[in-house]
Amino acid sequence: MSRSAIHVTVVYAPQARVVHEIALSLPSPCTVCEAIAQGGLAQRFPELNDPTLTFGVWGRKVAAHQALRDRDRVEIYRALRVDPKVARRERFVKQGARTAGLFAKKRAGARAGY
Known about the structure:
The protein is of the alpha+beta class. The protein has a domain at 5-77: Ubiquitin-like (UB roll). Helices cover 21% and strands 29% of the residues. It contains 3 helices and 5 strands, in the order ββααβββα. A hairpin with a 2-residue loop joins β3 and β4. It is elongated. The termini are far apart. The model has no long low-confidence stretch (mean pLDDT 84).
């Protein structure tokens, strides 16, 4: 009984603008954890041994035991260091109200906020 092979891609970005992408050919059936282990990323990046990591397939969050299909893209998500809402508020305070958002582009001679 021969097991057919599936082709998957495992993607991990350890920091902004740095992406590691590994194409794999794995025996079917295969899970997300098996694909990550076969990709060798856990050895290169020790932070991937954290049991609280979240994974996704084509942008949808999945469990670690999710079965994969041919041509799936497995994504390993980093934990957020800063809440996006807090970061936006801090940027707004730093930039000032007159240089951000609706107030950035003013018509000549217009009042503030219009």
